[in-house]
Amino acid sequence: MTPPPLADPAAHYAGRPVLVTGGLGFIGSNLARRLADLGARVLVVDSLIPEYGGNPANLSGYDDRVRVNIADVRGHGIDYLVRGHDVIFNLAGQVSHIDSMQNPFTDLDINCRAQLSILEACRKGNPGAKLVYASTRQIYGTADYLPLDERHPVHPTDVNGINKMAGEWYHILYNNVYGLRACSLRLTNTYGPRMLVKHSRQTALGWFVRQAIDDHEIEIWGDGRQRRDYTYVDDVVEAFVRAGMTEAVNGRVVNLGGRAPIDHLELIQTLIDVAGTGRYRVIPFPPDRKAIDIGDVYSSYALAHELLGWEPVVALRDGLARTVAFYRAHRDAYWS
Amino acid sequence: MTPPPLADPAAHYAGRPVLVTGGLGFIGSNLARRLADLGARVLVVDSLIPEYGGNPANLSGYDDRVRVNIADVRGHGIDYLVRGHDVIFNLAGQVSHIDSMQNPFTDLDINCRAQLSILEACRKGNPGAKLVYASTRQIYGTADYLPLDERHPVHPTDVNGINKMAGEWYHILYNNVYGLRACSLRLTNTYGPRMLVKHSRQTALGWFVRQAIDDHEIEIWGDGRQRRDYTYVDDVVEAFVRAGMTEAVNGRVVNLGGRAPIDHLELIQTLIDVAGTGRYRVIPFPPDRKAIDIGDVYSSYALAHELLGWEPVVALRDGLARTVAFYRAHRDAYWS
Lengths: 336, 336
Hints:
Two copies of one chain form a homodimer.
Chain A: H1 9-13, E1 17-21, H2 26-37, E2 41-46, E3 66-70, H3 78-81, E4 87-90, H4 97-102, H5 104-125, E5 130-136, H6 159-178, E6 181-187, E7 189-191, H7 204-213, E8 217-221, E9 227-228, E10 230-232, H8 233-243, E11 253-255, E12 262-263, H9 264-275, E13 279-283, H10 287-290, H11 302-308, H12 316-329, H13 331-334
Parallel strand pairs in A: 1-2, 1-4, 2-3, 4-5, 5-6, 6-11, 7-10, 8-13
Antiparallel strand pairs in A: 9-12
Helix pairs in contact in A: 2-8, 5-6, 7-9, 9-12
């Protein structure tokens, strides 16, 4: 299907006040930088919870173009912070599947309660706002069929998936009932510069990148044949930028997806080849991860193409090369 | 399909320690009474939150056969209370759709946080427990097709529907990951003795019954042609009893449903005919209710029949007659 013509993003965002929650995190910071480049007046809210993805270095070089407000979306202050922003990119969240099983109440507070707080704050203080929520294809759980489309039944396999599902639906509900303009993008595995590489609890690929650069041995769980899809962060940022200026996505849940699925083994081999360093070995699944693993999963982005004219353009090999180059250049800000 | 042979409930429950959360409420109290009649050692936990459905009179006559522990499932104590019970019927919940929109955080605490607390308490202190969760077909939202089966996409239309969806999935998750034996019954409109008739915020039908008995005028919103299904509480109790003794439902979401859908107008006319008192008129939808109304909805109970041998047996006219007779006999305990 031919996508609709897209208005000029720079014309749309120039001078426009926008808010990015979780804006010191991986995707949030890349989005904030892009929005600043487009001329938007960007406010970033982030809690900088230790162990999470927020890192002040992620906005390095943008100190004079992006305002940063450190605050926890679970607490007070959000009522004030949402006001006056035309578009709210809502990326604040707890994203670790394993942490959600070990600390389900923390995940609930961040991914449910705080989302309700943001939406209630908008309903009362900024009812004209447009919101773009960062959701996850984890909601689908194990695949009944592939690729996953938005009609696929949901059967989340961890607390994080359940709570993200609720957070997403709050957005759709407030769109439908209260007239806020909100949509939800269901992200698949996203990778690229500024992803969390301090530990392996949030993204496996970030940890693999670090290990490859350090010339360490990467452990692949199971047989390495689970197929997943990956989107480079610039592509994901482009989807947020488009969703923030497209009325046709209001009230909709929209998948993002990678260019083509690839199995873990091939992913790691490509990474090591691109990096020129690193090794791997295949080991059995750790029991606590096996319990919440979901096998082959990858998404269709047909609806994103239809509504936003979006498609992933950065090839995996190219994206991995850019990622490795970024971390080699900025190791000090990300390794410790 | 021929249902499986059912073991004798009295043989299964006799002497068995069981817990009913929300057991002073409408369905919970009817279930607790039935379980006591089957010889079970029943502990009821209820918070008796004002405005909710809990009422000490609901266990009238069972003082010596059902133990009652007043406690809020949101608070401490649940760790202790779940211990030692073979079956936990988990009916504690906030059930008002309109309250969930006005107080979304209260709904979140009761329908999400407290459910996680109960499951965490079982995981740590009673991992062999079997849980039966009271869910709702409200999760489906507006119908893509009818009757609703368990494969129907979920698109909840109020905060309550979203949070009940999360609460349900916590149960399925803990079944799948931690080996608790948990299932979820998605109830449709339930009616009968001990339903809340103090106000109209939880069930429309309870309020209609009261108005009919008081010979008042019943207001029907819209054109009265919305079709719904209704199950008499004894039928719902039977489903819980069966689910609590059936291993085949573990990890499953199972609809209950009424014998046949009926529109609001015919429902009210039947009620007034049975009661011999009451009148009605049709008025436009109040805006706050219209926003969360879901039109025609009714459920298929085919899976419940397959797994539990369950089907609704009480005809609407008969169930309404029993309900009216109950409230005429016990008006003092329910009207104020």
